[in-house]
């Protein structure tokens, strides 16, 4: 990777594309990151930061694939109260964070999110399924009362503290989740393992999972868990069923203990949507996606209504023919019998 320093600008893209062909490189980098006391950790972190600072999207995604493993190394070392071994990892994560919170001109970014309106159809819902509620939302949307949520500006950080640690890590996970479709299976597995370890360390479930890592409880925030759940959801739908299901259960376990309503809401919603879904554990190649259960569209409803009406008319026609045949043959007409009732 040291060749990158001498490359001209027009050759960076080709170099970035060639990294995926080096099959032994990624496993070797994972091994270095997991060994906190490795002499190679500092130069590796420096090189990963140079990749990210280059602005080349492929190189940035190459660095981000190691983010779950870097987060776990940082959290586990901080829990062990041995900060001297995580200095280069802290520098790398803070460098990525400080690059992402500003635009190309160095101005602070303000991210905006438009909350979907129930009156307008999406891949998640049809307005007709909400009945009169859709009319209310429709009336509001006609007046332009769409809700926009803003995030930012975020402050530059020079070091990790107990107050800003999870603010920075949550933002980094947001950046990671933005490129989930480019992440490898190894990276998605690392994300699920990070989720389980962070949520069960120091709690009774750690013995159930037979995890022999650190025993200290790690502080988490609701926003951090929500970002973890987002990545787990994607992993579940793209081949990592076993490790993803375990991670989702562990995050919900921790969210219940901490009484985090946001994490519980998102996690249980995803768990309910996956209930009974045909998740294939071997679906690791091909197009990446998230499974969504779509309600019938209006055209399908119209066809069903026409079919139902046609059957109703056919039944009614047969009934009318039976009545006419009975009237034309009075002998076959049924007369009710009066048993013991005498009306005379």
Automatic annotation (TrEMBL):
It comes from Gouania willdenowi (Blunt-snouted clingfish). Keywords: Cell membrane, Cytoplasm, Membrane. Belongs to the Hyccin family. This is Hyccin. Pfam families: Hyccin (PF09790). InterPro entries: Hyccin (IPR018619). GO terms for biological process: phosphatidylinositol phosphate biosynthetic process; protein localization to plasma membrane. Its main location: membrane. It is found in: Cell membrane; Cytoplasm, Cytosol. GO terms for cellular component: cytosol; plasma membrane.
């Amino acid at each position: 990777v040291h060749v990158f320093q001498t490359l001209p600008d027009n050759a960076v893209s080709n170099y970035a594309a060639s990294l995926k062909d080096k099959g032994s490189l990624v496993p070797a980098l994972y091994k270095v990151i997991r060994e906190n006391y490795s002499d190679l950790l500092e130069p590796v972190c420096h090189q990963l930061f140079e990749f990210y600072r280059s602005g080349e999207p492929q190189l940035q995604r190459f660095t981000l694939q190691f983010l779950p493993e870097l987060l776990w190394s940082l959290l586990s070392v901080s829990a062990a109260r041995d900060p001297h071994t995580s200095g280069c990892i802290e520098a790398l994560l803070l460098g990525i964070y400080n690059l992402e919170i500003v635009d190309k001109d160095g101005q602070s970014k303000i991210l905006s999110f438009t909350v979907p309106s129930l009156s307008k159809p999406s891949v998640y819902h049809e307005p007709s399924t909400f009945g009169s509620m859709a009319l209310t939302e429709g009336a509001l949307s006609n007046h332009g009362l769409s809700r926009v949520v803003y995030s930012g500006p975020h402050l530059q950080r020079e070091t990790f503290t107990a107050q800003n640690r999870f603010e920075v890590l949550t933002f980094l996970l947001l950046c990671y989740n933005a490129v989930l479709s480019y992440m490898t299976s190894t990276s998605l597995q690392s994300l699920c393992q990070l989720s389980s370890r962070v949520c069960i360390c120091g709690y009774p479930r750690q013995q159930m999972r037979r995890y022999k890592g650190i025993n200290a409880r790690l502080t988490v925030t609701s926003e951090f868990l929500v970002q973890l759940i987002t990545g787990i959801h994607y992993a579940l739908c793209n081949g990592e069923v076993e490790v993803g299901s375990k991670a989702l259960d562990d995050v919900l376990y921790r969210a219940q203990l901490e009484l985090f309503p946001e994490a519980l809401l998102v996690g249980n919603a995803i768990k309910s949507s996956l209930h009974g879904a045909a998740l294939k554990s071997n679906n690791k190649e091909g197009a990446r996606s998230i499974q969504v259960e779509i309600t019938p569209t209006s055209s399908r409803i119209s066809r069903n209504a026409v079919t139902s009406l046609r059957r109703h008319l056919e039944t009614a026609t047969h009934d009318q023919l039976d009545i006419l045949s009975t009237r034309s043959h009075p002998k076959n007409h049924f007369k009710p019998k009066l048993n013991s009732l005498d009306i005379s």
